[in-house]
Amino acid sequence: MLSPDRPFSQPVLVVALVGLVIMLAVRAIRKDRDEYRRFKRFERTVNRQRMMRRWLISSLGVFGGASAVLLVLVWQYIPLVLRAVDAWPVASAFRSLIDSTGDLVPGLAPGLGLVLVFGTVLAVYLARNSDAVPTVGDVGSLLPRNRAELYYGAALSVNAGVVEELLFRLALPALIFGATGSATAAVIMSIVLFGGLHVYQGVPGIVGASVLGAILMALYLATGNILVPIIVHALIDLRSLVLIPVLVYRVDRV
């Protein structure tokens, strides 16, 4: 575990950051795009399931492993990032709003969350007789086509919620903050890298993922609890890879 007080900590974190960015870029541009192009051509479910299983194992190894290693290195920087963000004017304004309204804002947040979740479920249910459901980015081929693929869809959703949030909302911002000393750079670069990871979905997918990353980052910074974006991220992916295939396309019967 690196200490912010040690003079050699920043150079080590700079090297780790450069290595991580290169690894993510190569993976997104070469590996992910090539594999998704092949995946879209698969007709047999056995080939699709094999690729889904490969993605699951790879994600656990790469993102989960990178998260574990980085968190060991930057654990002491995590509270420093949150403290630096709390000093932002927008954070001070938000705290003032909470203080002036008492429990109104904190009480509305869970209610709005429930409305969003049930609203999404209702919209998907009402669209169950449609031929297709609009999506952001080129993700249509990812939707499971039968019951066996649904299990992989659920596993990929939960896995993404856990390992991607640990990396892009917890470990990576602390790493960038330790390397640059800037909380602003930590937040922005983390969101940009998360969006760029979805290059295989095309420009709309990159934009959509960046917006989602910003929302998840805001949830983490506002609550200081990484479990919040983990749960939200997993639920969003479960909507796409489980709920829509079941309610709209009835793949659980296939």
What would the keywords be for this entry?
mainly alpha; 0% strand; single chain; 254 residues; 9 helices
Topology of helices and strands:
Blueprint: H1 9-41, H2 45-74, H3 78-86, H4 89-101, H5 104-126, H6 147-180, H7 183-196, H8 202-223, H9 227-247
Helix pairs in contact: 1-2, 1-6, 2-6, 5-9, 6-7, 6-8, 6-9, 7-8, 8-9
Word description of this protein:
- By secondary structure, this protein is an all-alpha fold.
- The chain has one domain (9-253).
- The protein has helices at residues 9-41, 45-74, 78-86, 89-101, 104-126, 147-180, 183-196, 202-223, 227-247.
- It is globular.
- The relative contact order is 0.14.
- The model has no long low-confidence stretch (mean pLDDT 87).
Low-confidence stretches: none
Structurally, how many domains make up the residues?
1
Structure classification: mainly alpha
Q: What distance lies between the first and last C-alpha atoms, to the nearest angstrom? A: 50 Å
The fraction of residues in strands falls at: under 5%
Helix content: over 70%
**Overall spatial form:** globular
Number of beta-strand segments: 0
Supply the number of helical segments. Answer: 9
The whole-angstrom Rg is: 20 Å
For the biggest sheet, the summary is:
none
H-E order: HHHHHHHHH
Mean pLDDT: 87
Concise account of the structure shown:
Helix content is 78%, strand content 0%. The protein is mainly alpha-helical and 254 residues long. It has one domain (9-253).
